[in-house]
Design brief:
Layout lengths: L10 E4 L6 H31 L6 H18 L2 H8 L5 E3 H34 L4 H4 L2 H27 L8 E2 L6 H7 L5 H34 L4 H29 L8 H25 L2 H18 L1
Parallel strand pairs: 1-3
Antiparallel strand pairs: 1-2
């Protein structure tokens, strides 16, 4: 195609989840309630870890970062989706679309990398408990978290620049609820081989490699737990990993299937389900998984509530 025929649009029209008015109102109420619960649940985790000194441990430092990421990731797409449920024409400018894509990719990548850092923390705690405090020192925790953010930001920058450089030759209707990378690539009117290569390469960096590291960590963890003689000891060891393993299982699978096979025949509807899952379902479930199954978090909540009641009196 000749270069002078290539055009970039000023705005995109998002098709959303449904065109039925009543369905959109119902979805607005459903996702609005879910968004509030995400803010409250993850905000509670951040507050408890900040206020309770007994939670100033590496595991909860990473969990606090994960809750921050969940709030930011959800806030990068859900508020716009809620507004669009109430509007007849669901548009987003080219610049806003690029910004949304950048932050969605950055927060999503950070979450996958943080889960790998948390798996390493659990590995040291169970496989080398005598050296846990020395190994997982504050400096290492900050370094791992910083690396997660920097790698995710660099990856997001590359993917966003390559994706938003694609001309659409006037086509601006995205069959999606947000500016998602695969939906934007499908809209392009030029060869997208480079984009698919970048998507696969990025998926390897922020998805496949962390997933392999998590799997390797848990292989060693399971082997170490099976060597514990007492049943109570094995249960306690499994209990310290159960919450994290549940979140890991939810997080990696669907993303690997979706983004490591960008040439697959996956439908736009499937892409919407994936986006809703990561923007709403996972951030909504994380606080319940980590709080309800964690005795330390429940004890911290009790201590904070007791202190607040004492101050009132």
């Amino acid at each position: 195609m000749r270069k002078d025929n290539l055009t970039w649009v000023r705005e995109f029209v998002l098709m959303g989840l449904s065109s039925d008015r009543q369905t959109q109102v119902g979805l607005f109420l459903l996702f609005g309630a879910a968004y509030l619960l995400i803010l409250l649940g993850n905000g509670l985790i951040i507050l408890l870890i900040g206020l309770d000194i007994q939670l100033h441990l590496p595991m909860y430092f990473f969990l606090c970062n994960l809750s921050v990421v969940d709030i930011c990731y959800t806030s990068s797409g859900v508020p716009q989706m809620l507004v669009h449920f109430l509007l007849e024409k669901k548009t987003i400018s080219f610049t806003q679309c690029g910004v949304q894509l950048f932050f969605c990719l950055a927060y999503g990548g950070t979450e996958f990398l943080l889960l790998a850092a948390m798996a390493y923390d659990r590995y040291v705690a169970i496989c080398d408990p005598l050296h846990y405090v020395a190994v997982m020192n504050p400096r290492l925790c900050v370094a791992l978290t910083t690396m997660c953010w920097l790698v995710a930001l660099a990856n997001s920058t590359v993917e966003t620049v390559v994706t938003m450089s694609l001309p659409t030759c006037g086509k601006n209707v995205l069959n999606h609820v947000s500016c998602e990378i695969l939906a934007l690539v499908r809209l392009a009117c030029v060869d997208t081989t480079l984009n698919h290569v970048v998507i696969v390469a990025s998926s390897i960096v922020v998805l496949l490699v962390p997933c392999c590291l998590v799997s390797l960590s848990y292989c060693y963890i399971v082997a170490a737990i099976l060597q514990i003689r007492s049943t109570q000891g094995r249960r306690k060891a499994f209990g310290t990993c159960a919450s994290h393993l549940t979140v890991v299982s939810m997080s990696y699978g669907m993303a690997l299937v979706t983004y490591l096979q960008p040439h697959s025949t996956a439908s736009a509807e499937q892409d919407k389900v994936v986006m809703v899952f990561y923007a709403v379902v996972t951030p909504l479930l994380n606080p319940f998984i980590y709080c309800l199954r964690n005795k330390d978090m429940k004890a911290a909540l009790s201590r904070v509530l007791n202190r607040s009641s004492e101050l009132k009196h």
